[in-house]
Design goal:
This protein has 521 residues and is of the alpha/beta class. The strands form 4 sheets. Strands 4, 5, 6, 7, 8 and 9 form a 6-stranded parallel β-sheet that branches. Strands 14, 15, 16, 17, 18 and 19 form a 6-stranded antiparallel β-sheet that branches. Strands 10-13-11-12 form a 4-stranded antiparallel β-sheet, covered by helices on one side. The chain is elongated, with a radius of gyration of 29 Å.
Length: 521
């Protein structure tokens, strides 16, 4: 009898008419892509919240690329959950806080929230928490201001957050809440209820519950206190109105309602096929490398020339690179490519060339190239005396532009995973990166760019003109397709990708790829 796993139970549990939200405790997922497909289908009907434990496993794979070093298990789970629409909770408290809101509240159709309170401090706390959660404070209409002014004393604060003062009665709570919910500028309301000095919290709960239940907008309650709120707790729970002990938790629940609405609005799409991709050419090149495993590249790393041909087969524009085996060839090739040029040490054993000073930029003439060739080979021999040096790679020097990193790696649970972020030697320190499953849709590529500072900066920033953002998205989609088509490509990385001004394209400057043989990670 086959074992039943987490994927098998999704559809049966979701089909229960009494189940409103699925909550998952996960230590791992056995069939990653099957889980994503099943959760995507189920999640359209009912929300799924997951808490994934074992985040800090010490079983990290030994990898040499920046992509491999940064693509831990958590990155894969986050990418998988995002594609499937699974909401990931960081704590058990969050999971059940969010589950109550999703089960009991109508959808949050916008991001404008009103706060109703009888205490100023918690109101400001709620405003901060809402902003931090990606929501915004609603701008109340003039009609609402006038209506609130007729209900509340002169000292009350009528703008959002609305502070009714400690003297607020159950009737004032009810009337003010009703006006906020009918305001067209308000998408949802966060009610803060410390027990009023002259009334019970239970009395306020009974007064506002009918208003909440008749509204098509979500209302969550921050019920603050201990013994004096127990009656109110029972009333709210019996009526299926989500209540929380602090404004921050209530704000977080509203943010999840917004996240859920955004997921439902987002139409499922499939990756667009590329008509100009030569998959057979790439397959032949990879097969040749695998068949030649009698003399494989070090640790499976492909020769530069083979990697260039594979990328070219997928329409990814690389900077023309030529291998110079000696000083004379370096000078000759530089003249052919055109000055200025870049020299990089050529060795299958040296993956991070810049770490040892193995890259020289902006060489303007034959004398500088000759000196550079000698310098690079001496550095490589000194730092790695046992390493075989093939020579130097010569590239044309590109004009200035923004630099990003693109990479892909095969995750053991979810398959091909794509990374985008800030490129260069500081990528692992800055960690301005985002991941997605591959192949990708256009929306997912946009998400990667908008989730990183370097991606947003491509639109232009201060003295930086807009860069060719469309070229970056195109290359991301092509790299994702390549990684999905060839699982034997353990890692592939472009770092940096030089992005030129808008309309001028982007070029892969430094590329590397590693194949995995059978039984070799």
């Amino acid at each position: 009898q086959a074992d039943v796993n987490e994927t098998d139970i999704l559809a049966p549990v979701a089909s229960d008419p009494h189940t409103k939200v699925l909550t998952l405790y996960l230590e791992g997922i056995k069939e990653g892509r099957r889980f994503v497909e099943a959760a995507s289908r189920v999640g359209r009907e009912k929300p799924i919240i997951a808490i994934k434990v074992g985040r800090f496993s010490s079983g990290q794979r030994a990898v040499a690329s920046h992509t491999g070093a940064l693509a831990g298990f958590e990155s894969a789970y986050n990418a998988a959950f995002r594609r499937a629409g699974v909401i990931r909770a960081e704590t058990s408290e969050e999971m059940f806080d969010w589950a109550r809101a999703l089960a009991w509240c109508p959808p949050l159709k916008g991001d404008a929230i009103a706060v109703l309170t009888n205490a100023g401090g918690p109101g400001v706390t709620a405003a901060d928490a809402l902003e931090l959660s990606g929501l915004r404070m609603a701008k109340l209409s003039t009609h609402t201001h006038k209506a609130l002014g007729k209900i509340l004393p002169a000292a009350a604060i009528l703008h959002n957050p609305v502070d009714m003062l400690a003297s607020a009665t159950p009737e004032q709570y009810s009337a003010c809440l009703r006006h906020l919910l009918v305001d067209p500028n308000v998408d949802g309301v966060l009610v803060i209820l410390p027990p009023p000095p002259m009334h019970t919290a239970g009395a306020v709960a009974k007064a506002i519950i009918p208003v909440i239940l008749e509204s098509e907008k979500p209302v969550v309650v921050a019920l603050m206190g201990e013994r004096l709120i127990q009656e109110a707790v029972e009333h709210f729970r019996a009526a299926h109105v989500p209540e929380y002990r602090f404004p921050e938790r209530a704000a977080s629940a509203l943010a999840i309602l917004k996240q859920r609405s955004e997921f439902l609005v987002r139409k499922p799409t499939a990756p667009l096929p590329f008509e100009d991709v030569d998959i057979e050419k790439a397959r032949i090149i990879l097969d040749e490398q695998i068949e030649n495993r009698i003399k494989p590249p070090s640790n499976g790393w492909l020769p530069q020339e083979a990697t260039e041909l594979i990328l070219k087969a997928y329409g990814i524009q690389t900077l023309p690179t030529a291998l110079a085996r000696n000083l004379d060839e370096a000078v000759e090739l530089s003249a052919k490519l055109g000055y200025p040029v870049v020299l990089k040490i050529a060795s299958a054993d040296i993956t991070h060339k810049s770490d040892i000073g193995g890259v020289l930029l902006d060489l303007k003439n034959a004398e500088e190239v000759a000196q550079g060739f000698t310098k690079l080979t001496q550095i490589a021999q000194r730092v790695h005396p046992q390493t075989e040096i093939s020579g130097v790679h010569v590239q044309r020097m590109l004009p200035p532009g923004q630099e990003v990193i693109l990479g892909a790696i095969q995750d053991p649970q979810f398959g091909a995973l794509v990374m985008f972020g800030t490129g260069g030697v500081e990528v692992e320190g800055l960690k301005d990166i985002a991941f997605s499953l591959a192949p990708m849709t256009l929306d997912e590529a946009e998400y990667l760019l908008e989730s990183t500072w370097v991606g947003r900066k491509l639109r232009g920033y201060r003295n930086l003109p807009p860069s060719d953002r469309n070229a970056v998205i195109d290359i991301l989609l092509r790299l994702a397709q390549l990684a999905a088509d060839f699982p034997q490509l353990a890692e592939i990385e472009i770092n940096p990708l030089r992005v030129l001004p808008e309309g001028e394209g982007a070029y892969a400057i430094d590329i590397r790829a590693r194949i995995q043989f059978s039984g070799n990670s």
